[in-house]
Amino acid sequence: MVPAGTCPSCGAPHEAQAVVCGQCGAMLPPTTSSLPPPTAASATAPPPPAPPPPGPTPIPVAPTRNSAAMVAAALLAVIALVGIGLVLLGGGGDSSSTGDGPQPPVTYDTDIDPAALTANQVLLEPVNQPTVDPFTDDARLGPEEQPTVTLPDLPTTTVTTIAATTPGQPPIPTQVQSSQPGLYGGTRNNQLCDKEKMIAFLEANPDKAAAWAQVQGIAVADIRAYISGLTPVVLTRDTLVTNHGFRNGQPYAHPSVLQAGSAVLVDAFGTPRAKCSCGNPLLPPPQLVAPPEYVGPQWPGIEPSTFVQCVPPPVPITGGITIVDLDGGELIVRPIGADKGTADLATGAIRITLTWGDTADLDLAVRDPSGSTIDFDVRSSASGGRLDVDANSGCEVAVPSPAENIVWADSAPPGQYVVQVNLYDDCGAGSAHTFQLQVLVGGVPVPLLTGDGTFSPTDGTGSASLDNPTFYFVFETV
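^ that's the sequence the OP posted. Answer follows.
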């Protein structure tokens, strides 16, 4: 060995490429980088996940009672299709329109039967209002409230806009990709939907469970796992969906616009799948063939030209859903499948997130390019990094789906970062603890290398045990 320096902790000599001391295990000050360029690992990075499987066949909308209205609606289907175009949907309080024209016709009858809507009628569903033909008891953990913070603009794609043939007809709701940061919201570490209550009700009511599973295209036996994997969020925009009621032992479908502030559960593609106030299963919105007629009770400030409909991205969302903190307005990350004990995460220029699936105490530490280390003991650095979440600390308050998170909020120094994952205590949770490390720079996952002196690409996964407690990862920024 040709020594390149000595350990500042114990004085033992070390090689030029070492990132940790072989004698005492301490992180070493940075030396000249021995890493290949960041692009070297990208060629061996795993391919993206396969596109989502086709969704279940939608249940037909219940037959309507007004055939004359259906004929009239069919006449409106003589329409002009406008090509794909990009628009910006404004944030909170912005009443800018994505189309021209006055408010649409709205029926004020609050006793409308959602099973008997005529063609292209869409039911308006305000927050905190009883739902006709609910699937379950109310699974909310508190009242729903419209967002009051400033919301980010959303880039949207209008794919099929119908040019109204009658003055005063509204445009069809604008399409927004459901992975778009800020489309959903929530209060940090304070979820509004009790998934376990919804599951328990369905398990106790087999007829409703069978209908719920039928809508989602899953087996009844899979309901618990399916709902457990959904993520609780709050709509930040008035959103078009296909809702479902339960009547006479059967589900029926009807299009609805859920008011901003409604609590829903979304899947790994960000698609709304259940309404928390009533347990109703949700599917993507129907394809409207004429300008919609909105029926039901209006809410203050309603503006149909700002209604949205969600379209899934081509691949599942990784690293969590980026939502708006409805207390402060900043963007935070809610892990996929979060439950009441799962912490929401800060985000920023660099986000380094460690997740695992049991109550053991794993620790995350990062050494930045200047040589400063952030960990559970030293929680911030002069370069702007900070420990955002420290989970299962000392086994005192353990959660089953923990995460640790270190972020640089606004900017971060370029150079080499060394990440340490260490099993501090198994907390009686078994001998092996599988974990996942993910690093995002500017919101984009970056390749990771692992090793000590000799580096190789990795997907960030590992299994920590008392026999093999510590892992090291490196990445570089420019």
